[in-house]
Amino acid sequence: MNREVLENANVLWNYFSSFNEEIESDVIVVCCSYDLRVCDYACKLFRKNGAKIIIFSGDKGNWTSHLWEKAEAEIFRDRAMINGIEDSKIIVEDKATNLGENIQFSKKFFKDNDKITLVSKSNTLLRIKLTFPIHLNFAVSVSGPLFNFPDEVSNSVGVLGLINEMVGDIERIIRYPDLGYQIKHDIPLKVLASYYFLIQRGFVDHLLKGVYRSQ
Questions:
Q1: What's the domain range around 98?
Q2: What tens digit of pLDDT does each residue of 77-135 get?
Q3: What is the 3-state secondary structure (H, E, C) of the chain?
Q4: How far is CA 125 from the centre of its chain?
Q5: Are 70 and 154 part of one and the same domain?
Q6: Is residue 207 part of a domain?
Q7: Which residues pair with 53 in a beta bridge?
């Protein structure tokens, strides 16, 4: 793959990964996806922090509708039990189809003064952090497994798929505040430059419809 493409994609990856934090929590909410390593990481975090419950949230999504027959939350629940998490500690929320719904449908399981950590893929952490205040007005931490790019990219999407996904993540951070889906966030100029570079190189598959299509 072109060196400049990888360098600019790495700028996005490092920026998203910088929002990872490991803070003691009472409840862990896992925004499920195609990457089961997120589940493994959440289980380790659950045991490390002594959390009371772990919530797996997610129906089938863009990436997983052709990957699994069951909802992402069910697949993650099965994986968690293999990892030794007791079924009584697990809540399955299998209706959410986006980050807002992950939060909206999971919040009914929160108790007053619970410390909440939301776990997901590294490139989704910032979007979760920006989405949460739309639904609840207290602080939340976000965390995810840290992998090397591009060597440790999930085989479920591959390097090209992840680059497309990250470009789409940046676009949503830019556009979603005006739609009421996220709070506003100032993206560093270096990150924006890499975002536009990758769009110009044709990484537009995960952009919102009608925006920046290849000529």
A1: 19-143
A2: 999 999 999 999 999 999 999 999 999 999 999 998 899 999 999 999 999 999 999 99
A3: CCHHHHHHHHHHHHHHHCCCCCCCCCEEEEECCCCCHHHHHHHHHHHHHCCCEEEEECCCCCCCCCCCCCCHHHHHHHHHHHCCCCHHHEEEECCCCCHHHHHHHHHHHCCCCCCEEEECCHHHHHHHHHHHHHHCCCCCEEECCCCCCCCCCCCCCHHHHHHHHHHHHHHHHHHHHHHCCCCCCCCCHHHHHHHHHHHHCCCCCCCCCCCCCCC
A4: 5
A5: no
A6: no
A7: 27
The count of structural domains within the chain is: 2
Tell whether 212 is covered by a domain: no
Domain containing 56 — which CATH number? 3.40.50.620
At position 212, the amino acid (one-letter code) is Y
Whether 209 is in a domain gets the answer: no
Indicate if 61 and 155 belong to the same structural domain. Answer: no
Neighbours of 146 (CB within 10 A): 11
Ranges of residues in the chain whose predicted pLDDT is under 50: 212-215
